[in-house]
Predict the structure.
Amino acid sequence: MTTDVLDREDFLDSHRALAVCAREFDRLAEDVAKRVADLEDEAKGWKADVRRSPGRCIIQIGPVALTLSWLRTRAETVSQGRLLVVEWHGSVGANGQQEYVNGVPTVAVTQTAKVVRETVFLPDASDEKSWTWRREGKNTRKAYRSADLAKTCVSSINGTLRESSSRRASAKDAKRPRIKSAN
């Protein structure tokens, strides 16, 4: 093993890396939330709803959603953790519409969201300044800074929004009655 690999492994297994990872996740989530706000469109009913908790971020905008989750293992080391980025079509969670009485839902949620795209990223760093996210799997060469990954995620969800919009327009056109010409 080279010194670089050892430095990376030592850092990612350290307690310092836990704090750095939390800051990087927060930077990523904040940047995604700011960028998604630029996609809002009142005419189409697209308003960004951002819900955050430690290690989690759910962003619903119109008919699509994006979730960011930091998945940890029992070992509590960053090197064993994964960043899960999932794009959804449909509403994720109840969006505040679900009501509970004594912890029991009063109305069953009938619609579920469908996964459009799921990507897993691994942290890669030998210190805070070198922090990047690498896609898990065969194509692990491309590294993303948190701001670059946020830009990529929002670009992707924007494409999903556009696809959803064009699908809805096509469905509406198909339902309209056709007027036959008298020829």
